[in-house]
Amino acid sequence: MILECKDLTKTYRGYLALSNINLQIDGGHIIGLLGPNGSGKTTLLKLIAGLLSPASGSISIQGNPVGPASKNLISYLPDHFYLDHHRKVAEIIRFFDDFYEDFESERAYDMLAKLNINPNQKLKSFSKGTKEKVHLILAMSRRAKLYLLDEPIAGVDPAARDYILQTILSNYEETASILISTHLISDIENILDEVIFLQNGKIHTHALVDELRQESHKSIDDLFREVFRC
Amino acid sequence: MLRKLLKHEWYATCKVMVAINLALILLTFIGCCILNTDIFNHKDAVPMAILMVILYTLSLTVFGISTLIYLYFRFYRNLFTGEGYLMHTLPVTPMQLFHSKLIIGYLWTLLNTFLIIISVLALTFIAGYHFAETHNAEDSVQLLQGFQTEPLDSNNFANAFFEFFGYTPLQFLFHLTQLQIIGSFVSLLTGYVSILLGQLVEKYKLMASIGFYIILYIVNQIVCSILMILPALRILVQDTDNFLRSYYKDMMGYAIFSQFFMGFVFYFAAVFLMRRPVNLD
Predict the structure, then answer these.
(1) Pairing label, strands A30-34, A64-65
(2) A46/B contact by beta carbon, under 8 A
(3) pLDDT of A104-128, one tens digit each?
(4) SS3 state at A86
(5) For helices B243-274 and B94-134, what crossing angle results, to 10°?
(6) Which listed residue, of A69, A132, A227, B167, carries a Cα 20 to 30 Å from B82's Cα?
(7) Around A21, how many Cα atoms within 13 Å sit in the side-chain half-sphere?
(8) Sorting pLDDT into bands at 50, 70 and 90, what band is B145?
């Protein structure tokens, strides 16, 4: 098992962001973390990545509690830019290469070349979409056991979305798992093995995509709209 | 991993820190060049000389403060804003993150402090040299004798200095350097602890950090003042003849001790705060 969350609860200033989350994820799966705004998707990913600490409950990644050992196994892509914009892409690649044993610089440079991104340019000189691609390339150039991708396709055009999804699919090992949080369900539906619907900080549904489709005779996108109808 | 963090921290801070310290060296060089000219050699130049000394002192203060502000800002931005998402997901411990910032920050602060001391010394020596060139031999010897390590029997500068402070100028400079070395550590930690305390507040973390900085600065001043009153009380009880000399002689030791004490307290406060669970907004 790659990820296990037991009775995970998180509160923000008295507000219950996540409540008693119990979750187990095995290797080799792509899981969609879906839910309306404020349902706790980003909070869950940040807890697993070690950027937040839970009010109660526990998280383990391949048996390791959240810490340096678990961070060595996780590749995390936040929902916003987090790198120093004054640095060149090549400098950031060197930084990743230094700290992550599983980072493959050649793969990163190869992906940059395919997208015509100059690694000797500073990050601030790129458009928003290109910055997102650089962030994704860095995250996917690792041979991690668990990828946490928070809204990886939110800010890019449909053509770039296809490239990003293709990048995700072609750059993770079969034994690794990917947890993707997104609102753009129809775009990623076809690559998902499992979905988790989060509602008000609780898991509403956790099931295999094929089973859900067969049972409901609906696409995941339609099912999502039905479950979370305002 | 600490070694890698140190390397990247050094690299990331290099550009700004080198620029600040090069500007300081340039200021010293310009100051030396100006002192080597004859522009202050007539009575009309006195107001300009005073203005130049004020500007020079202000510039040194700005260089010292800008170094600290940059290092505080770097600590805050790199660990507690967007960049914290990268730093706190690296396979390193919070202590390694903290120590990399502390060690590199302290090295830069020390370098800056030494350059400021060297700048003051260089300008003092140039002024002295220029004085020797433009005045008679007896006056020059009197001035130069002032920099000897042992107090002199004759009524010269060093003797007067020793009579007043209880130190020769070189001894005083040595203790002042010791105080600056430990004082730089305390100054850096005051900012780091303030930022860490600010993270405990739910809203307006940056404003809270500035508030904590003011409080910690005042606490440091109070502790330092209390410890520096102690030698005065001891001397009063002993009823020493030369009160001021005895006081100044002991005061420096107590000032160094107070900064050691505050450095110790702030360091362990920072370690305690860094070990708390992370919660990045």
Answers:
(1) unpaired
(2) yes
(3) 999 899 888 888 889 999 989 988 8
(4) coil
(5) 150
(6) A69
(7) 36
(8) low
